[in-house]
Specification:
2 domains; single chain; Rossmann fold; alpha/beta; globular; 13 strands
């Protein structure tokens, strides 16, 4: 079986890692896989197709920013990519993030609607049913926004400086995304599955497949813990860890700043991974920052050296960082946001109301230092429900069912 994956990136981020893990699993089972991507660089050892150029992405980004028509640039690049799909002749097409300034959704979905290739679309966020943002809140009555609620949304990814085309975008997406005859929608959380079932995508089967983690890489390993704690000047302190590819208010950065004012410096040390230089100089001196790392070994060591992983996210689907942390034996405290809480039980962390700093502070103090029992509970939960073998095995079975039907 030949599987073509399409994602914005391959060489970094959680979605890139998910695509690579699925590729590795399919190849190990005797199947063939290619990953088509738009941004960043390829990863050695993987068969890939680069969609467009850096100049094309820049042009798409400028077009999106000026017109609020994200996803409708990259016409030439997408047409060339369609020729490569025809040449490869995949049995299955697996979509991931199709936003990211690299592909034209109109050209892609008109092609998919004309072909009889089964399509599996894993939604990593809400962009598919949004007139603008990749993340949004439902209306107060629980319904999907059909109009721009406030212009502040236009400053969020994909940012635009022009007038809103929210309603036009949403209408075009409904026409395009419901045009494929043979497609199934996958989400990594029950929260997002339930939401999608209230949208125009409910014409398709919608299933939850939880993202999995590589438990051979992300494992309990304290060999570098002492060195890292010493490097952070936290040998006798409780390390509070936060990890993100991009830090902003959506990821709860302001909540970490607030925590830094409330936690005793002699007892606790906040460490944030993924902080760029511009953000670093805006943070208090008592927060230690580490640049984004693409080394899973380095990230594993950081998880292991930490006592508590805190994820104060305000918008999220199913954060991979939560399960990476627990795979390394480190408990998670998170807000009850989206699907962030779905991987956690009473033995592996705490779930608190969004933005409740007092409760966040209390739970940090309650967990304080992780024990061998906590580490074992976290690890066992991941092994039972959230390994990449479980996740990728479900995808492979789904592919086989679609191809044989």
């Amino acid at each position: 079986m030949k599987v073509l994956q399409i994602n914005s990136v391959i060489d970094y981020g959680s979605t890139g890692r998910i695509a690579r893990d699925l590729y590795d699993y399919l190849e190990s089972k005797g199947h063939e896989c290619v990953i088509a991507f738009g941004r960043g660089e390829s990863t050695p050892g993987y068969n890939t197709i680069k969609i467009g150029s850096n100049l094309d992405q820049l042009a798409h980004g400028m077009y999106s920013r000026l017109t609020d028509r994200h996803g409708f640039g990259s016409k030439v690049a997408t047409k060339k990519f369609i020729d490569q799909i025809d040449k490869y002749q995949p049995d299955i097409i697996q979509l991931h993030n199709i936003h990211g300034y690299y592909i034209n959704i109109k050209i892609l979905f008109e092609y998919l609607s004309q072909k009889n290739i089964p399509v599996v679309w894993l939604l990593h966020d809400q962009w598919a049913v949004s007139g603008h943002s990749a993340y949004f809140e439902l209306n107060t009555d629980g319904t999907l926004p059909t109009k721009l609620s406030n212009r502040q949304m236009l400053t969020e990814y994909p940012k635009t400086v022009g007038f809103s085309q929210f309603e036009r975008n949403l209408k075009d997406k409904e026409v395009l995304f419901t045009s494929v005859k043979n497609m199934i929608i996958i989400t990594p959380s029950n929260w997002l599955t339930n939401m999608m079932q209230t949208t125009f995508l409910n014409k398709y089967d919608i299933k939850t497949i939880y993202n999995g983690v590589d438990t051979e890489v992300f494992r309990v390993d304290n060999s570098n813990t002492r060195m890292l704690k010493k490097k952070c000047n936290a040998t006798d302190k409780t390390i509070i860890l936060g990890v993100a590819s991009v830090w902003d208010e959506r990821k709860g950065l302001k909540d970490f700043v607030e925590l830094s004012k409330l936690l005793p410096d002699k007892q606790f040390q906040i460490v944030l991974v993924g902080i760029d230089d511009r953000t670093k100089f805006k943070l208090p001196d008592n927060i230690i920052t580490i640049e984004r790392t693409n080394s899973v070994d380095e990230l594993r060591d950081i998880y292991n050296a930490s006592d508590i992983f805190v994820n104060p996210t305000y918008f999220d689907n199913f954060p991979t960082v939560n399960i990476e942390s627990m795979a390394c034996g480190t408990p998670v405290i998170t807000y009850d946001t989206g699907g962030s809480s779905e991987s956690i039980d009473n033995n592996t962390g705490s779930i608190i109301n969004q933005g409740d700093i007092d409760s966040l502070l209390n739970e940090i103090k309650n967990w304080n230092k992780k024990t061998s029992y906590i580490a074992e509970s976290c690890r066992n939960r991941i092994l039972k429900f959230y390994t990449k073998e479980i996740s990728n095995g479900q995808y492979l079975q789904l592919y086989k069912n679609l191809v044989s039907s």
